[in-house]
Each structure stands twice: as C-alpha cells, then as structure tokens.
Amino acid sequence: MKKALITGITGQDGSYLAELLLHKGYEVHGIIRRASTFNTRRIDHIYHDPHNNGEKVNLHLHYGDVATSDTLLDVIYNIRPEEIYHLAAQSHVRVSFDMPEYTGDVTGLGTIRILEAIRKSSSNARFYQASSSEMFGGAKPPQNEETRFEPRSPYAAAKVYAYWVTRNYREGYNMFATNGILFNHESPRRGETFVTRKITRAVAAIKAGKQEHLYLGNLDSRRDWGYAPEYVEAMWMILQQEKPNDYVIGTGEAHTVREFLNEAFSYVDLDWNDYVKIDPRYFRPTEVDYLLADASRSRNLLKWEPRVHFHELVRIMMDADLELTGLTPPGEGKKILNERFGGWHRWESQVVSMER
C-alpha cells in the first residue's frame, strides 16, 4: 500500500485528491491546521474515526502548519510517504494584496520548508508543487511551460518563488520534484469567496428569494476554467512519470467573468443584468486580463484531456448550489457528472461534503 501526504487536504483540491488516492488503494495522510472550530467539512464523508473498533482507517490527519518547519519534518520522517502533494497556500489572489507578507511566507516559503524537510529526512518521496497560471500574469496567451512568468500579484510572485525552488531542489539534490502549473479549476467545493462559486451561490440564493444583488469587480477578465476533480487526476499522473518534469494543465478554452454570469443566470431563467452590481473594492491593483493554457505537453506525455468543459462546469456547480439552497436543480450538471465519471467521483460527495 502506497503512502501519500497531502498539505491543504481540507481544501477543494486536497479533498478531491484524497478521494482519488483512497480509491486507488493508498494510505492517505493529511496535514491540517489546528483551529477552535471544525474545518474538515470537505473530507468529512471520507474520514472514519480511528476509535471505531474493527473499522479499517486509510485516512489519517496530522496537525501542522507550512509556516513552521518542525512539524513538517516530524510528519515526513515518521510517515515516510512515497508521494507528497503540496497544495496548502494562501490562495486568494485579491486577498494577497491585503496580506502580502503572510502570502509570501505561506505560499512561497512554505514550499521550501517542505523541500528541506524531505532533504533532511533523507526521504525519497516524489514531490508535487501546486503552481499556478497566475504566475504568467501579463504574458501573452496562450501560455505553456516555456512562457516567461510575469506575476502581477503577491500571490503570483510567491508561486513563482515556489516554482523555482522546486526546480532548484530537483536539479541540485536530484529530487523527484515537479510543478503542476494549473489553470483555474472550479467545482461545488470551491471556496465561497472565489468568483465562480460566489456567482453560483448568489444565483441560487437569488432564485430562492434569499438575496437581491451580487457585487463583483472586473467582468472582462478571461480565464481558462476547468473542473477540479480532473485536475487532481493530472496531479497524480505527474508523479507516476518515469522522470520529473513540469506540466501546464488547462482546457485550452477561455471565457470572461461576464460569460460565466450569463451561463449561470440563464440556467435558471434569470437575466444577470437585473441583479449584478460593480463594486470597485473587488478590483485588483494590477489586473491579469487573459490566461489561456497550451497544455500540449500534458496531452502528449500524460495523455491527459479534460472531459468537462466550460458550459458543463457551470451546470455542475449550479446544480450543487441549487440543491444546497433547497431548490430542485434542472439536473443537467448532475447528469453530466454521472455520465463522465465513475468509481471514485460521485454526485453525492459533491454536495454532502458541503452541508455543514
């Protein structure tokens, strides 16, 4: 049984990755931050209490923080995982302008703390660094592994640092250290302050008569939006390769926030112009206008292809948020998900994990 360690296991990607690895027969370990409230809602449906007699437990949680080195070294040394997926970060781009120092510490230096823990513990673990398309910033689209980075936020700059130290440890210490440069990937488990989920939650609430308006910033930003469960499959594929490398993961299709609004509102027969208001507070000091993936390397080497595209993604997210709001969704998103995925990924785990 392979062992895998996931930082950021309680996040969107971490929860889907944990599901995938458990389905593949892994023993999964996750690092979570200590809090006075429960913060594990995305993984509650796959977590089993180790005190239950006779129940086999393959998911284990450990308190720790990527802002400190000691716990990282202890966990890696004691577990001896074959694979480490580093997903933890302060990952909200707009918030990084308000908390630049914290973002640099957690998102940037957190990566080198884990790499050092791997090196000092003499671990042979394969390492995955969650890099971001935000690193490309102002670079002309489409962007691939050879595109020059032009970060336009503290978050993006921190991710560029993490990208280069990962490559440095790969070349300097002969580590199996990789970067997955993931373009925007969304799902019903996306954090409520990210624009896609903010939109789908608001549409459901407006349809239910619980909300009057939705306040947003720049509607003209173009993004390459994919479906998160497919992207964690790519993470796993990256660590199964014979040699370490860096990979861009994306759909090769870009849409504006305005288009996302239109798709979401029209799904429930509403006109977004009647409900959306612009709030300057949501504009970034420096905007990223256009991100579009050239994922040729992933298609050729990983044989990875997206199965869910933009219009289908919106429907999946809308069905989940309508269901959470207590409404009966049209069901197109649920049908798409159940047709495209089998085994480890089910509609029930999309919604149940968010009920608390």
TrEMBL record:
It is an enzyme of class 4 (lyase). InterPro entries: GDP_Man_deHydtase, NAD(P)-bd_dom, NAD(P)-bd_dom_sf. One of its GO terms (molecular function) is GDP-mannose 4,6-dehydratase activity. CDD domains: GDP_MD_SDR_e. Its cofactor is NADP(+). NADP(+) binds at H213. GO terms for biological process: 'de novo' GDP-L-fucose biosynthetic process. This is GDP-mannose 4,6-dehydratase. Keywords: Lyase, NADP. Its EC number is 4.2.1.47. Residues 5-317 form the NAD(P)-binding domain. Catalyzes the conversion of GDP-D-mannose to GDP-4-dehydro-6-deoxy-D-mannose. Belongs to the NAD(P)-dependent epimerase/dehydratase family. GDP-mannose 4,6-dehydratase subfamily. It comes from Leptolinea tardivitalis. NCBIfam families: gmd. The keyword Lyase applies. Transmembrane segments: none annotated. It catalyses: GDP-alpha-D-mannose = GDP-4-dehydro-alpha-D-rhamnose + H2O.
